[in-house]
């Protein structure tokens, strides 16, 4: 079995203080993808850079205290690739790829458009550039899983108050159609929704009001995989016993073979 975790930390140092690395030590995870580091290399303590038993890799944002993604793995990867090769987006530290034999694991932090119309346009631009790369990745013929904060709730089941959010970033028709195209035309598979067609599976809650306590959430963190690898997903869970961030860790267990 291979256990993969995706977690938006909303600040790696903040999440550490709230117990994330203590949880990680007992999680049984083989690979852990983290997003929104809000830190540079010099800011990380040794246990944040390379937790006991793990190798650590990062794609930092140039702007201090902003964005950034990372990946921890028990097995050293054969190859690590930082960025998409698009300078304007790579400056924000949003993409990190690690290859393990025929398996590729990617940590992704897709831009949010909620802060301003300008950032929504950046999000659309990222999506436009990223789609051909997703098509190319799919055609590589490898087992690939892209873990991260995609900042889009795909269907009505994926957020509590969908009717009130149809004109808001994260649930815009264009964003949802982009994911539909990714799944239906390109062929990528949403592992959570494949396993649990009727379970909301929220992974993010606003800090406003009592959203977390009342479970008024959004499912915007995904593990999206190529079909052969997605078929190996046996179970998944969203960890809410402790709160490390405004997001909750998403864990998926993959069998060694699809028919096991």
UniProtKB/TrEMBL annotation:
GO terms classed as biological process: base-excision repair
Give cofactor(s), names only.
Mg(2+); Mn(2+)
Q: Which domain of life is it from?
A: Bacteria
User: Where does the record place the Endonuclease/exonuclease/phosphatase domain?
Assistant: 6-247
Which GO molecular function annotations are given, in alphabetical order? DNA binding; DNA-(apurinic or apyrimidinic site) endonuclease activity; double-stranded DNA 3'-5' DNA exonuclease activity; metal ion binding; phosphoric diester hydrolase activity
Q: Which residues form the active site?
A: 109, 149 (proton donor/acceptor), 247 (proton acceptor)
Entry binding sites for Mg(2+)? 8, 36, 149, 151, 246-247
> Site Interaction with DNA substrate: which residues?
247
Could you tell me which NCBIfam families the record lists for this protein? exoDNase_III, xth
Q: Into which family does the record put it?
A: Belongs to the DNA repair enzymes AP/ExoA family.
What's the name of the protein?
Answer: Exodeoxyribonuclease III
Organism, scientific name: Crenobacter cavernae
Q: What is the lineage of its organism?
A: Bacteria, Pseudomonadati, Pseudomonadota, Betaproteobacteria, Neisseriales
Q: Which gene encodes it?
A: xth
């Amino acid at each position: 079995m291979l256990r993969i975790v995706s977690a938006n930390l909303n600040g790696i140092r903040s999440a550490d203080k709230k117990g994330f690395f203590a949880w990680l030590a007992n999680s049984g995870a083989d690979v852990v993808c983290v997003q929104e580091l809000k830190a540079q290399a010099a800011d990380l303590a040794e246990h944040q850079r390379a937790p006991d038993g793990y190798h650590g890799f990062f794609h930092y944002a140039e702007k201090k205290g902003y964005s950034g993604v990372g990946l921890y793995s028990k097995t050293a990867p054969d190859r690590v690739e930082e960025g998409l090769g698009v300078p304007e987006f790579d400056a924000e530290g949003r993409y990190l790829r690690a290859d393990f034999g025929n398996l590729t694991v990617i940590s992704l932090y897709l831009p949010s458009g909620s802060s301003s119309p300008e950032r929504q346009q950046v999000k659309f631009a990222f999506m436009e550039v990223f789609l051909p790369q997703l098509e190319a990745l799919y055609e590589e013929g490898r087992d690939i899983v892209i873990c991260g904060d995609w900042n889009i709730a795909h269907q009505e089941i994926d957020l509590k108050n969908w009717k009130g959010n149809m004109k808001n970033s994260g649930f815009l028709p264009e964003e949802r159609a982009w994911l539909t195209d990714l799944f239906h035309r390109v062929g990528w598979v949403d592992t959570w929704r494949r396993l649990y067609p009727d379970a909301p599976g929220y992974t993010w809650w606003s800090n406003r009001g009592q959203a977390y306590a009342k479970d008024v959430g959004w499912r915007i963190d995904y593990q999206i995989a190529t079909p052969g690898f997605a078929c190996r997903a046996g179970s998944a869970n969203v960890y809410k016993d402790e709160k490390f961030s405004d997001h909750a860790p998403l864990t998926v267990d993959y069998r060694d073979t699809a028919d096991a």
